[in-house]
Amino acid sequence: MYPKKELAQLVISACDQFNIDTVVISPGSRNAPLTIGFSNHPNIETLSVVDERCAAFFAMGIAQQKRKPVAIICSSGSALLNYYPAIAEAFYSNIPLIVISADRPKHLIDIGDGQTIRQENVFENHILFSANLVEKKIN
User: Which backbone phi and psi does 86 adopt, to 5 degrees?
Assistant: First the structure.
């Protein structure tokens, strides 16, 4: 089963292409297309850790042991911020983590609802690269 979201398919395909074979998922509604796609991918092992703080450190340990990048995936908003301690530790320890987060559409950011914080470049001082992927609008 593949996610219906084209952007999720693209991210999953890129991870496979770059030999990311382990993904630690923190379940949430916003990242469901990623969770479905990664969980059904034949070349990618998925592990579920509910608490984002634990998930990020767990992934960091796997990446350190395997000596290769591990992806972590979470929902939008403050869920992403819970990854920060492990991201900072991984950065200074040269342990490769790939952080993938769902996000709300731009017009829903800063409106006071849950999961609507400004996520873009939130880790900028402790990462090597960041990208904000935007889904195509269907007219």
Answer: -70, -35
- Cβ neighbours for 125, distance < 8 A, ≥ 6 positions apart: none
d(CA 55, CA 58): 5
Q: What is the pLDDT of residues 111-120, one digit of tens each?
A: 666 566 666 6
Nearest to 20, CA basis, from 2, 46, 48 = 46
Distances (CA, A) of 8 to 12, 13, 59, 74, 84: 6, 9, 20, 13, 23
Residue 139 burial (CB count, 10 A): 3
Contacts made by residues 18-23, CB under 8 angstroms, sequence distance 24+? 18/69, 19/68, 20/44, 20/69, 20/70, 20/71, 20/98, 21/45, 21/68, 22/47, 22/59, 22/62, 22/66, 22/70, 22/71, 23/47, 23/70, 23/71, 23/72, 23/73
Q: What domains does the chain contain, in order, with CATH numbers?
A: 6-124 (3.40.50.970)
Give the model confidence (pLDDT) of 85-107 as tens digits. Answer: 999 999 999 999 999 987 566 65
Calculate the average pLDDT of the chain: 85
